[in-house]
Amino acid sequence: MDDVRQAHDDAVLELGGVIARLRRERKLKQHELAKTTGLSPSAISEIENGKHKLPIASLLGIASALGADPATFFHRPNGSPHYSQLQTATLRTQDYEFTLQVRAL
To answer: What is the mean pLDDT of residues 75-81?
Structure first.
């Protein structure tokens, strides 16, 4: 079980790094992204540093604020997925259906 927890913690940290990179590329400050997403600046900081578990709704809000496809958070810049064992999750909202495929180490 420790391996699963470590893989999860690593994924949360890597996701935060992707969010931070996209934010910097768009020349946004943490407080500007926070205002756009409705999250607090401290929550943005914790997310970027892998210290905050991110609800999928918040992840979708951040993707929208950054003008990024949510799939960007789950693939490396070269297009390869972050993980090797495929797991699929589907989120349905009133207007959209998102299917996320995550590969666990």
So the answer is: 59
